[in-house]
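Posted in: Protein Modeling Q&A

I'm a second-year student putting together a small comparison for a lab meeting, and my supervisor asked me to include a predicted structure for SCO family protein. I've never done this before, so apologies if this is the wrong subforum. The sequence is pasted below exactly as I got it from our records. If anyone can share the structure token output, I'd also love a short note on what stands out.
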Amino acid sequence: MKNKSYIGISFIVLIFGIWAVPKIVDRFKKSDLTEIGTVPEFELTDQNNKKISGKDYLGKVYVVEFFFSTCPSICPIMNQNMLKLQEEYYGNPEFGIASVSINPEYDTPQVLKEHAEKLGAKHYNWHFLTGNRDYIHNLAMKGFNLYAGENKNVAGGFEHSGLFALVDKDGNIRSRKDNYGNPITYYDGLDDAGVLAIKEDIKKLLAE
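Accepted answer (user: helix_wrangler)
Welcome! Here is the predicted structure, written out as tokens:
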């Protein structure tokens, strides 16, 4: 009787193993998202006056935007779309957002804290970052290849990209490919389709 029970248990374990192994393998398999490059090293100060670097985001899937709190044009749209990502992944400790101000002289930690509260940013891994202006503009344009600069002829006095960068748990910028097989590199932070795409791809990276 004991031998029959043992054989029965062994059979169940074997069947479970056959089912579970592919699931475990899938959990650690890379998704179809392309690696664009490594996030440049950075260290900035967040809305809580805490130093935040790329190392604080390791082990997390996060989205990067360059903005400024007094922007009268595209920033409010970008921030609202970041709120959609927060809502989708709220409470997930492996998700984060980095909102980097390109007008740091005005956007002090206190100003960014008030901005975050007014916006409704509640995710503990959503950092509004400030620092030296040249350092940040360099980070945007040379580190991420995303435009950011001062222009006194435009509303708000600054120009910048409306794109979001998606970063995986290892600190690599990742993206999907377009219909022709080319990496899109960044996601449109002003467009519903771009927000839907990055939502889907965050999910893929969280599963890696």
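A couple of things worth pointing out for your meeting: Helices lie at 2-27, 75-89, 109-119, 133-143, 192-206. Confidence is low (pLDDT under 50) at residues 10-16, 19-27.
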